């Protein structure tokens, strides 16, 4: 039995122990919980948009959604024990699944009626969150950091309750400077302090491709390291572990899905 099958089996055991989870269809959920109203930010209607094949955490009939439920349980428990609310998702190199892991983790957390989550795209060189949700942002986080847009102009609700997106736009060549700027530090601090009950997930650039992520990591509580099965090399894992040694790593996610 491979690790994905083990994860699926363990997720089903956890659901049985807990008596099962509420249906994750956000349009028909009737249980009580947090249901924010987004009146000052853009809402991107899901109607008429093709269903992204790799965004599965909010589709309970998809077998991989159980994997992200299990990841959600582990992440929320570990964050709760240490009273943390911010998480950076990273990997050694590009193409190892960190963005899809960050998105599906955020989707799965948003399916929990007791949670709200903000997903932030820090991949200024090659932003991907808006592409997976299939919309073109009118303004992005890099525009805010450059003083070209207000924060509310950048925030987007993808027509999913309890989920906010802060996308990036374009291809910034000064990404390292933006991520370590006083404006970014102030924003990270303000987001955490102003929304203490909201989990904030940062999709960060790959560790070994640039210094962008290392420069930003002091602004977050914890990190989740994504490894792609049979792709990430042992030497890359060891080098990444050295770079992350001064930071709180909440765990490692092995991505075996192509």
From TrEMBL:
Domain AAA: 86-209
EC number: 2.7.10.2
This protein's record includes keyword Plastid: no
Pfam families in UniProt: AAA_31
Lineage: Bacteria, Pseudomonadati, Pseudomonadota, Alphaproteobacteria, Rhodospirillales
Keywords: ATP-binding, Kinase, Nucleotide-binding, Transferase, Tyrosine-protein kinase
Name of the protein this chain belongs to: CpsD/CapB family tyrosine-protein kinase
UniProt keyword annotation of ATP-binding present: yes
InterPro entries: AAA_dom, Bact_polysacc_biosynth/exp, P-loop_NTPase, Wzc-like_C
Molecular function as annotated in GO: non-membrane spanning protein tyrosine kinase activity
């Amino acid at each position: 039995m491979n690790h994905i099958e083990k994860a699926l089996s363990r997720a089903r055991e956890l659901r049985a122990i807990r008596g099962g989870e509420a249906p994750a269809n956000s349009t028909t959920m009737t249980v009580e919980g947090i249901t924010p109203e987004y009146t000052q930010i853009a809402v991107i209607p899901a109607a008429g948009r093709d269903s992204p094949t790799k965004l599965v955490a909010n589709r309970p009939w998809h077998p991989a959604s159980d994997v992200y439920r299990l990841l959600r349980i582990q992440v929320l428990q570990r964050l709760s024990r240490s009273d943390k609310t911010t998480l950076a998702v990273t990997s050694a190199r590009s193409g190892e699944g960190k963005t899809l892991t960050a998105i599906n983790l955020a989707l799965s957390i948003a399916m929990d009626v007791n949670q709200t989550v903000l997903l932030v795209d820090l991949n200024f060189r090659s932003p991907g969150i808006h592409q997976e949700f299939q919309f073109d942002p009118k303004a992005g986080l890099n525009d805010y950091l450059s003083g070209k847009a207000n924060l509310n102009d950048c925030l987007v609700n993808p027509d999913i309750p309890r989920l906010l997106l802060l996308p990036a736009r374009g291809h910034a060549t000064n990404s390292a400077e933006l991520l370590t700027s006083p404006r970014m530090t102030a924003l990270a601090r303000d987001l955490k302090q102003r929304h203490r009950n909201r989990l904030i997930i940062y999709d960060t650039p790959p560790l070994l491709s640039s210094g962008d992520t290392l420069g930003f990591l002091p602004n977050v509580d914890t990190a989740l390291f994504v490894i792609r099965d049979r792709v990430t090399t042992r030497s890359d894992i060891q080098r990444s572990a050295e770079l992350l040694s001064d930071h709180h790593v909440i765990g490692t996610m092995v991505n075996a899905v192509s």
